[in-house]
Design brief:
There is one protein chain. The protein has helices spanning about 5-10, 15-30, 45-55, 65-80, 85-95, 110-125, 150-160, 225, 235-240, 260-275, 285-290, 300-305; strands at about 35-40, 60-65, 100-105, 130-135, 160-165, 190, 200-205, 205-210, 215, 220, 245-250, 280. By secondary structure, the protein is of the alpha/beta class. The protein has 2 domains: about 5-175, 3-Layer(aba) Sandwich (Rossmann fold), CATH 3.40.50; about 175-310, Rossmann fold. α6 (about 110-125) links the parallel β3 and β4 (about 130-135). α6 packs parallel to α7 (about 150-160). It starts with a helix and ends in a 7-residue tail after the last helix.
Length: about 300
Amino acid sequence: MDLRAHVSGSGYELDDAQLQVITRLNELASERRGVYLHGPVGRGKSFLADALFDVLPEPKKRVHFHAFFQELHRRISERLHERGAVARAVKELIGRAKVLAFDELHVHDVGDAILMTRLLETLQARGVMIIATSNYPPDGLLPNPLYHDHFLPGIALIEELMDAVELNGATDYRRLHGEPRSRFETGEIIKAAELPTTPITLDVNGRAITALGTENSKVWFDFGDLCEKPTSTQDYLVLAVDFDEWVITGVPILDTRDREAQQRFANVVDVLVDKDVRLTLVSDYPLEDVLGGHPLDLARTASRLELINTTG
């Protein structure tokens, strides 16, 4: 297995930091050792992790972290009082896979931290090799000091099952503007837009979500309806199947909203990038004011929104 040859065959030229990391990934792949690839946004973590995943020969599965965790929650809740509920839910979700890849792993909720620890224990028992990318080093997960101790067992498992490799090159490639490489990058951030006049109610996973309107595969949402009500990542994934162009209006300065609304907004952006949906944000404020001090995962969100940061 020659990971560097595989990447070179794709026509990409690696920078020095990426070359150092790919050498280490080759070694870990030969050792059948898991990988926890972390570092700032835009350095190519997902690209290199995907390349590693592609060259591994055994049964494998790549999952969207948000969707996988949401589905894991759901399946466990269906058999809440059964013994071995976590192990059975994991078996249903990954099948015979011996390699499991998570992109952009993060933990901010103490409940998720506990479940993540159980998930890691189950994957360890099944002998599954884990490939994960994250903006956080392992000991930076669940950063809230009030809860961080709750995830120390999970962090210990990450360090046991995976080799932490940092990718910290000088270039944030997401800030190198050029021709759009994806539908998401054709979006924009504007101050005003013509909006539909008749709101509608969408039935999503049995939940009523208000949209300002729809037109073919385009949907308009108000920030409050989408992010300040109890919507979930699974809802966004379902909506992204039906609508490949989103407009979100009334986007506020996020520091003025609660943590849950901020995290939902970050999750929306994550899903739309993953599903390559065109996004237009309508706000009275420039992007740097909207994002403020980049709490929680908003450093990653900021990097992604820079791809569409134009004004109109």
